[in-house]
Design goal:
421 residues; alpha/beta; Aspartate Aminotransferase, domain 1; Aspartate Aminotransferase, domain 2; 7-stranded mixed sheet; 14 helices; 16 strands
């Protein structure tokens, strides 16, 4: 019995309706940009396995560093102890994070990084004797699946059964260059009617919404209003962080820096799970007191796991190399050329790109998990390319190490599949 059949006996997959989609492809090997299934078929991983393996799968540089760490310290609780990989990682992260960030808090994944950020903002004001219970978030935002993260998200396919249990969230439109005044008025109204603790946002690119891109200057105007009203700002850089938008972080392009930043995915280059919530010294100081209850009592068993920290350190080191920087620039420029070409296709309504991210909107209503979306996914896989459309949006987010030939195959595969629709 093969992996696919054995899988059906006991496993429950995420984001999947097993009644209508019972099969999951068995993958037995991944190296560089190539996935190999149990039948020997190969696929270019054009989305870096959910934007994690940005330096390719089983990167020798990263795995060798992790192997070395495994020989000395595998796991230790982080409440009472510290260790070199965590200390070193904090030092290296602070060097590349926006200049106002100074404290590093460890979590398990992107959703829990957001969860910690939300709790930091709420308790920040609680410790100051202020009751603030409202958050502001963008329409169509997505921040994770735990309850706090789910509350500030707005994609109903994820949240539907739980909406009666979520936090008080006030939503504002995403800036589009024409609605700045509308957003400013909405913000002022929310501030006057609610006790707002924070504004959470995906800077420049809304991933799960279909790689929707907004302007840095427009976002900055929103952050300025928040700062002027003493509202903490939380940048969810789980998807955008570590080079995806062309800079180390999307927040690098925005003049007003966030108070809190959430990081995961490419943090450990997809090798092992880990996330980080960073914050300013001012936020950290608000938790210092002789009263133990004012401390931040939020913890994960595998916080600052030494093996994960070593993977993150290796990833950051690679990110700073001229080779990777040149590769990111090459991918970005090549995306721009292909976008100009494909936007004239009769099945395409619009394209957009930012750094290594390219999104193509089709003139069909595929539905996030609709029939056409499934058809596209299957057709891409049949051509040896793993692309996972978001409804009627086909997007590319390839590993930084992708070759010219592999990138061209992704482009030609998209053209070929669109010609068959």
């Amino acid at each position: 019995m093969n992996l696919q059949e054995r899988d059906k006996k006991h496993l429950w997959h995420p984001l999947k309706q097993h009644q209508t989609h019972p099969n999951s492809l068995g993958i037995v090997k991944a190296k560089g940009c190539i996935l190999t299934d149990e039948h020997g078929n190969e696929y270019i991983d054009a989305i870096s396995s959910w934007y994690t393996c940005m330096f390719g799968h089983c990167n020798d540089f990263i795995t060798s560093r992790v192997y070395q760490q495994m020989q000395t310290l595998d796991q230790i609780m982080f409440s009472d102890f510290t260790h070199e990989p965590a200390v070193k990682l904090s030092e290296e992260l602070i060097k590349i994070l926006p200049e106002n960030q100074n404290r590093i808090f460890f979590n398990d994944n992107g959703s829990t990084a957001v969860e910690a950020g939300i709790k930091m903002a709420l308790q920040y004001y609680f410790n100051k004797g202020e009751k603030r219970n409202t958050f502001i978030a963008f329409e169509d935002g997505f921040h994770g699946d735990t309850f706090g993260a789910m509350s500030v998200s707005s994609l109903s396919v994820y949240n539907g059964p739980f909406e009666d249990f979520l936090m008080d969230i006030q939503r504002i439109p995403v800036p589009n260059g024409k609605n700045n005044e509308e957003i400013a008025q909405k913000l002022q109204q929310i501030v006057s009617e609610h006790n707002v603790a924070g504004f959470i946002y995906e800077p420049l690119v809304q991933g799960a919404a279909g790689m929707k891109i907004h302007n840095a200057e427009d976002l900055n105007s929103i952050l300025t209003i928040c700062k002027n009203n003493d509202i903490l700002t939380i940048a969810d850089e789980v998807m955008t962080g570590f080079g995806k938008t062309g800079n180390n972080f999307a927040s690098d392009e925005v003049g007003t820096k966030p108070d809190i930043i959430c990081l995961s995915k490419a943090l450990t280059a997809g090798l092992v799970p880990m996330s980080i919530t960073s914050c300013t010294e001012d936020i950290y100081t608000a938790f210092l007191a002789n009263d133990i209850a004012k401390g931040f009592f939020h913890c994960h068993t595998y916080s600052a796991n030494p093996i994960a920290c070593s993977a993150a350190l290796a990833s950051i080191e690679l990110l700073q190399t001229e080779e990777i920087k040149d590769n990111i620039e090459y991918i970005s420029n090549t995306h721009k050329i292909f976008a100009t070409k494909i936007e004239n296709h009769p099945k395409v309504t619009s394209t957009r790109h930012k750094g290594v991210i390219l999104a193509i909107d089709l003139n069909t209503n595929a539905g996030r998990y609709g029939t056409l979306r499934d058809q596209l996914l299957t057709s891409f896989m049949d051509e040896g390319v793993f692309l996972r459309p978001l409804g009627n949006t086909v997007y590319i987010q390839p590993p930084y190490i992708i070759t010219k030939e592999q990138l061209n195959k992704i482009y030609t595969t998209i053209e070929k599949v669109l010609d068959t629709l």
